[in-house]
Amino acid sequence: QVQLVESGGGLVQAGGSLILSCVASGLTFGSYVLGWFRQAPGKEREFVGATRWSNGNTDYADSVKGRFTISRDNAKNTVYLQMNSLKPEDTAVYYCAADKSFILSRDGTRYDYWGQGTQVTVSS
Fold first, then answer.
1. Tens digits of per-residue pLDDT, 73-118?
2. What is the dihedral of CA 2, 108, 65, 76, to 10 degrees?
3. Considering only CA atoms, which of 13, 11, 38 is closest in space to residue 97?
4. Are the CB atoms for 115 and 97 separated by under 8 Å?
5. Judging by beta carbons within 10 Å of its beta carbon (0-12, 13-18, 19+), is residue 55 exposed, middle or buried?
6. What is the 8-class DSSP label of residue 106?
7. Residues 9-19, buried b or exposed e (16+ Cβ, 10 A)?
8. How many Cβ atoms are within 10 Å of 87's Cβ, its own excluded?
9. What are the backbone angles phi and psi of residue 88, rounded to the nearest 5°?
10. CA of residue 24 relative to chain centroid, distance
């Protein structure tokens, strides 16, 4: 049974940093694309970034490029989202997701497994 569990969310002031973690069980990261998405109240879910585990290729939404970084720890089967220079508009529930298609995609419908989400709130 595949399970993705996010943690690390919280309340932070604008300009601050947070690091989110996503621990996976029941799958081998090496054959997956791992993505981060977010959903703010009243808004649609949006792509944040993704990485292909096998070669480390990454893709980021323009809104977070240069501020957010995806990294991973193979031994811990964990992917991280380092978020710097946070803005109030980054406030959302953040989800990690896994796609076994090997395609680095921004389309959330392609992802097969999702975590439960972790709340990030950025105060102004």
1. 988 999 999 999 999 999 999 999 999 888 899 999 999 999 999 9
2. 0
3. 38
4. yes
5. exposed
6. S
7. beebeeeeebe
8. 14
9. -55, -30
10. 12
